[in-house]
Amino acid sequence: MPTKKKNKSKPANHDRLKxxxxxxxxxxxxxxxxxxxxxxxxxxxxGVEPESFVENWISRxxxxxxxxxxxxxxxDFLKLLVDMKKSRVT
Length: 90
Known about the structure:
By secondary structure, the chain is an all-alpha fold. The chain has one domain (13-89). Helices cover 76% and strands 0% of the residues. The protein contains three helices and no strands. Helix 1 crosses helix 3. The chain is elongated, with a radius of gyration of 20 Å. The model has no long low-confidence stretch (mean pLDDT 88).
């Protein structure tokens, strides 16, 4: 007796949203790693500029990243840097 196969595919919109969510999480993790490397570098070397550090770190760590990804990592890195400075002041 033949059985009908159920269509188990999820809507394409759901997959796109899931992919975008994972992309944002990936960029956030990269920003945390960049921040941790920046703090380590600053503990050993004085006068490290955050902007040049992040640019060099991204170019050496992530290959073929689009400019929107670089901006996202930079923005998340700056949030971490500002939050850390705020916590030191208070």
